[in-house]
Amino acid sequence: MPPPILEARDLHFAWPGMARAAGLCGAQRLRALDGVSLALRPGARLALLGANGSGKSTLLLHLNGTLRPDSGVVLHDGAPLDHSKRGLLALRQRVALVFQDPDDQLFAGTLAQDVSFGPLNLGLAGDAVAQRVAEALAAVGLENLGEMPLHMLSHGQRKRAAIAGALAMRPRALLLDEPTAGLDPEGVSSLLAHLDDLNAQGIAILFSTHHLDLARAWADEAAIMSEGRVLAHDGGEAVFSNEELLQTARLRCAPHRRAQRAPGHA
Ligand SMILES: Nc1ncnc2c1ncn2[C@@H]1O[C@H](COP(=O)(O)OP(=O)(O)OP(=O)(O)O)[C@@H](O)[C@H]1O
C-alpha cells in the first residue's frame, strides 16, 4: 500500500466557546474532533460519511491546515504540517480544499479572474496562468464561461467554479466538502463524471457527504464519522453493508410515517 499523502493522527479539537455552549444546552459534546485518525492515499476515492455536526468540515479544515488541532498531528507526505504562511502556500499547491458553499470561496469579478487567483499568487507568468485556467475550466466543463461574471453563474456552475479554482493549483489531493449539496440529479452525475476524470489523472479525492447512496456509487473506500470520531474506515462495501454501524452514525433512520387522520376529519 502506498504511504499516505495526508494523515490525521489522533486529532482533538474544540471550537472556541464549544464547552460553554455545551454547558448552556446540557449537551455532552465538548469537542468537534475527539481522537480522529484518518489516512488519504495516492489515487484514493474516499467518502467521509457522517450525519450533520459529526465533524466532517472541521476535519477537512485540519487536513488543509486552516485549523490547528489542540492535540494530535496532521502529516503531509509523512511530515507534520508547517502552518507558516510559506508552509501553507506550499501545502495548498498539493492539497486543495473546496468549501461546501462556493460563495465562501469565490470572490473575483469573472470566472477566469477567480480561477487565476491561485496561480497568480504562486508568481507564475501570464501564459502559465492562462494555461492553468484553461485546463481547470475544461476539467469541470466551464471552458466557455471564463468571461462570465460570477454572480451570473447558477449555484451548480459556482460549485464547479470553486473546484476549478482548486484544480488550477494542480493538486495531488482534492478535498471536497459536500460537493453535491444543492445540485440537481443531472448536476450530481456531471460532477461525479468530472471527479472520475480527475481521479483517473491520479488525483486523490476525499469528499464528505451524508448521502449513503452517493458514497456507495462513487467511492472505493469510506470513513464513517460520528460525534467527532471516526468509527470505521474500510473498503466501501465493508462499511456500507454494516447496518449497525450506519445506524449508530445516524446515517440510517426508521422511515417517516405520515400521521393517520382521524376518521371523518376533512
Ligand atoms: N465555527 C464554529 N464555531 C463553533 N462551533 C462550530 C463551528 N463549526 C462547527 N462547530 C461545531 O463543531 C461540531 C462539528 O461541526 P462540523 O461542521 O465539523 O460537522 P459536519 O459533519 O461538517 O456537519 P454538516 O454535515 O452539518 O456540515 C458541531 O458540534 C458544530 O456545532
TrEMBL record:
Key words of the record? ATP-binding, Cell membrane, Membrane, Nucleotide-binding, Translocase, Transport
A Gene Ontology biological process annotation?
cobalt ion transport
> Does the entry feature the keyword Cell membrane, yes or no?
yes
Keyword Nucleotide-binding carried by entry: yes
Output the superkingdom of the source species. Answer: Bacteria
**Where would I find the ABC transporter domain in this sequence?**
6-252
Classification via CDD domains: ABC_cobalt_CbiO_domain1
| GO CC list | ATP-binding cassette (ABC) transporter complex
Q: Which PANTHER family match?
A: ENERGY-COUPLING FACTOR TRANSPORTER ATP-BINDING PROTEIN ECFA1 (PTHR43553:SF24), HEAVY METAL TRANSPORTER (PTHR43553)
Task: Write out the function statement from the record.
Answer: Part of an ABC transporter complex. Responsible for energy coupling to the transport system.
Descriptive protein name: ABC transporter ATP-binding protein
Lineage of source species: Bacteria, Pseudomonadati, Verrucomicrobiota, Opitutia, Opitutales
